[in-house]
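Support request from a user on the community tier.

User writes: "When I paste my structure tokens into the form, the page sometimes reloads and wipes my input. The last time it worked, I copied everything first. Here is what I submitted, just in case something in the input itself triggers the reload:"
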């Protein structure tokens, strides 16, 4: 059994004991630091933090068993489990600043990937670019989601590279859709905010192993990403308030970002907008929520995994399973001007980006027509 301090940067939150990656004891919870706890745990702190709750947080932190390559890693390393891998790498990632400090012996700057370089070994191993794993000290250990992905660095900036769920003939489908969505978003949001809000530009990364999308890290040494899944667990809702109204209220003056996201998800038929895939950016040192996180997770769109090009068979998230019904939550009319601008270029934009896809010409034509039909439908809506 090993002793650790759960930290937020250099702020101690609680003492925990781990055995093979599993929390077996929680002590000395700093209730006065409640605003600096992971939001998913903060509500538990109020009533007394337990091993079950911290173990649940660790489980939600590490990469899932469904990630391509992880089963081979666990087979090759029989002494490790995913929770013990988190313990071994101290739970450090590039989305926030929580980590496990062995007996309080280290400083945040000793381990943080924001200020220390890391080797690509673990990510390369998962992507089958190397036979042996080498160093496991990587932000990839605590990067969630089943999509093939890994962290790297370009010109001093941290970049998340994303592929498909697994290798195969459809490997280009999701990266192409990520890049296409980012270009559509650039038009939608710049017209609203005139460049005053950060829009990370997703682009292509191509190597001998395939085609990937790349997205710059949108947090830094002072900020962290907090999903609405965590926020809903932290604050719950007020009375019979709907989840949409609750989340819209949390957006505050940036509510139009949420409306743009719903508009984009209708247009591209996003199937993956669960509450972990959108959220807010928070100040690490104060716990203050600063602004919405960029709209990401746009790869599972435009019939990415089906041959049936029919919107009636595509379910939406998170406010309704019907894209059409979910769209009724916002005023489409308020977006008419930007939709008019988009209508003038979206066809050419589609052709330019989807040229990188391995999909057949017939399939691309069907998806393109379906997309334009949906945009024209939006332009006809009068409310």
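"...and here is what came back when it finally went through:"
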């Amino acid at each position: 059994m090993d002793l650790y301090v759960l930290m937020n940067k250099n702020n101690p939150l609680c003492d925990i004991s781990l055995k093979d990656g599993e929390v077996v004891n929680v002590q000395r919870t700093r209730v006065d630091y409640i605003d600096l706890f992971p939001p998913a745990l903060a509500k538990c702190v109020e009533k007394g933090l337990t091993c079950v709750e911290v173990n649940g947080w660790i489980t939600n932190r590490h990469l899932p068993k469904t990630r391509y390559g992880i089963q081979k890693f666990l087979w090759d390393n029989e002494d490790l489990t995913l929770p013990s891998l988190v313990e071994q790498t101290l739970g450090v990632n590039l989305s926030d600043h929580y980590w496990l400090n062995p007996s309080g012996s280290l400083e945040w700057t000793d381990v943080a990937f924001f200020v220390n370089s890391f080797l690509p070994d673990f990510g390369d191993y998962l992507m089958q670019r190397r036979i042996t794993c080498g160093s496991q000290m990587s932000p990839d250990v605590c990067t969630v989601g089943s999509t093939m992905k890994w962290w790297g660095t370009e010109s001093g900036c941290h970049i998340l590279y994303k592929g498909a769920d697994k290798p195969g003939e459809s490997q280009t489908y999701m990266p192409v859709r990520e890049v296409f969505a980012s270009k559509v978003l650039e038009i939608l949001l710049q017209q609203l905010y005139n460049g005053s809000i950060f829009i990370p530009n997703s682009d292509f990364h191509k190597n001998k192993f395939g085609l990937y999308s790349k997205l710059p890290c949108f947090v830094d040494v002072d900020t962290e990403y907090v999903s609405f899944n965590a926020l809903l667990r932290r604050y719950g809702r007020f009375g019979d308030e709907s989840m949409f109204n609750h989340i819209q209220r949390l957006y505050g003056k940036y509510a139009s970002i949420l409306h743009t996201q719903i508009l984009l998800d209708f247009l591209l038929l996003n199937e993956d907008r669960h509450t972990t895939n959108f959220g807010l950016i928070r100040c690490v040192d104060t716990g203050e929520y600063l602004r919405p996180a960029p709209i990401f997770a746009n790869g599972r769109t435009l019939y990415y995994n089906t041959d049936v090009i029919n919107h009636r068979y595509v379910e939406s998230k998170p406010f309704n399973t019907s894209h059409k019904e979910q769209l009724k939550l916002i005023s489409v009319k308020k977006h008419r001007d930007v939709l008019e601008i988009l209508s003038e270029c979206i066809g050419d934009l589609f052709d330019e980006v989807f040229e990188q896809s391995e999909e057949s010409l017939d399939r691309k034509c069907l998806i393109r027509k379906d997309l334009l039909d949906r945009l024209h439908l939006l332009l006809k809506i009068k409310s």
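Agent notes: The reload is a front-end session timeout and is unrelated to the input. The chain has two domains: 2-146, 181-195+223-380. The radius of gyration is 21 Å. Escalated to web team.
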